[in-house]
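Methods — Computational structure assignment.
A single polypeptide chain was analysed. Its primary sequence is given first, followed by the predicted tertiary structure written as structure tokens.
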Amino acid sequence: MSELTSALLTGAIALAVVLHLAWLARASRNRASAARAADEASIRAVIPDAVDVSDGTAGVATWAGSWKGERAQVRTIVDTLATRKLPTRWLSVSITEPVAVPGIFDMMMRPGSPTTFSNFDHLEHTLPKTTALPAEAVLRTDRRGVAFPQDLIAAHAGVFAEGRAKELLITPKGVRIVWLLAQADRARYGVFRQAAFGDARLDPALLEELLEAASSLRHAINRRERQAA
């Protein structure tokens, strides 16, 4: 094989590789765009006036709107922290209305490594826990010596029995529930380092269930506070 032929062959192989990588990148963008459109359709099935308010943070998409007269927020988060064996996709559902609590109440299930969706690790004070709450839960707050209505919280924490609920956050500004949507495909991530989540999509019924749980807990806390006043 002459030097010219060898150079042409090498150039052709390099061009083929570049074109293939460009095709893969475009296909990945198309899949991501289709998945985001499907997520938005699912959210608007539950929150018809939902608006995309994402701030451009990589792997995070946020929608805000109103649900049954209350302000609501839905967020999906792709967590790719190196401390995790596999990237994880989380669903965060919030009712962003006032709650009569004296500070931050953060219940994290099986806390083991840092997360990208929570400030749980930065809360300084661990709370004693009623036995009515899940055994795997750890409670933290930002204020020493405050009390929270754990009996009410436990009565409205049924979604945590399913094993996929990760966090319950209650603050004076609202209630948030974080749910495990999916973990990345192990084979694809191991070979290509791509966080692909297969057919994992937002289920409108799940969104409705989490919004109802957050809203009913908020109303129960505020109702007790009014009765005690």
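Note: Confidence is low (pLDDT under 50) at residues 186-193.
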